[in-house]
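Got a spare moment? Tell me how you read both lines of this record:
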Amino acid sequence: MAKKNAKKSKNPPATIARNKRANFDYKFEEKFEAGLSLMGWEVKSIRVGKVNLSESYVFLRDGEAYLFGCTITPLNTASTHVVCDPMRDRKLLLNRRELDKLQGLVERQGYSIVPISMYWRKNAWVKLEIGLGKGKKEHDKRDDTKEREWKIEKSRTMKHAAR
């Protein structure tokens, strides 16, 4: 039985959404934390967890970074006087130095910018972790899978050997 005075955590978990395919499809060399410019209905939907990062990517236009393809499904109880576009481009808030670095690497060296996860910072701001990396080839993906399976098998063997 639970106590009546037991404190329940009113804070939602820190991670809102993850792009699970990102680590499988890309080899990241550097990661950045970016803020998001959101509307009120988007924040409400994010608090409920109606976010999908799987098909999204970041592109640079006019010296600014934008998140494209991220789906934030509007709530049924959202305001009726605001037109909710779940697939709109959302501006990323980065420092000028970070934007210049990303711009240079993407244009000159063929890097891609991919969102990795969305999370709460201090339970007030929505942050997006983006990764700067290159796409993996098919043989790289197979090597990663073999390495992961070998680690699992090795840990099982060590566990049984300790008995």
The longest strand covers residues 26-36.
